[in-house]
Amino acid sequence: MLLDLHTHSSYSDGTLSPKQLIKKAKNLGVKLFSIADHDTIKGQFEALEFAKKINLNYIPAVEINAEFPTLMDILGYNIDINNDYLNFFLENIYNKRIERNKLMIELLKKEGFKIDIEDLEGVSLYTIGRPHIARILLKKGYGTSISQIIEDYLTRGKRCYIERFKFSPKKTIKAIKKAGGLAVLAHPKKLRISNNQLESLIKELKDYGLDGIECFHYSSDPHYTNYLIELARKNGLLITAGSDFHGSNKPFVSLGVYVEDFVIQDTINYFVTNYFN
Question: Is the pLDDT of residue 56 over 90?
């Protein structure tokens, strides 16, 4: 099956609108699709309406960055996008993002970059982060690429970086569950921890309500993907797959992931039973 449960639109740091993403997925023959923008569900209304119009099996989703020494993202699927608890939770994160962006802009200005907070207006339909700031700097003639600018100035330990506000994994999973959602650990490879540490972490997150692991992702080679599949099965967790497509912001990532049906059948059955019926 060709599916993709992890993509990003221009409501966060992707370069395609929800309609453009859904049309692209439909044309490619994707059978099950989700847009999981960073810390926002503002694009889900447009996505749900258009997916229904063109008859694409679409699951509303979100990707929330949780507190952890390295990068931890938790995906929420099948969420009620009108849920007050989840919306208030995400609004808190959004407001902290605005404060963070202002601080990073001020640090960049001190380093001699000609950039102002007004430059961020209109760069995203909603969520604004480091890739948007880096793209503005690139357009102004600084650096050689978005990734180079982020790496040199906007990464942890560099002069213009400000740590992002995050809720704990427990609170993040709680917000997803409060909205009736399915909580899935995104791209475990990016946690940069050992297999033993990951297995302990999975048990902890499962106690909080974790439902699945994103086993298929570009960061995982086939050997690690198979390890994640076995880890999910051993812990009674669902298996998901996503490209993490960002459009031209990640030109090396293509939309759509091929997965043998039997590997992901439990996940398909879950969505058919709990969402499409």
Answer: yes
For the stretch 103-132, pLDDT in tens is 999 999 999 999 999 998 888 778 888 989
List Cβ neighbours of 16 (8 Å cut-off, separation of 6 or more).
9, 10, 24, 247
C-alpha–C-alpha distance, residues 100 and 164, integer Å: 7
Tokens 């994640």 sit at which residue? 228
Residue 62's SS3 state is strand
User: Which is nearest to 153 in space by CA: 175, 171, 131?
Assistant: 131
Residue type, position 155, single letter = T
Contact 182, 212 (CB under 8 A): yes
- pTM over 0.85, yes/no: yes
**Strand ranges across the sheet with 61-66:** 61-66, 72-77, 182-185, 212-216, 238-241
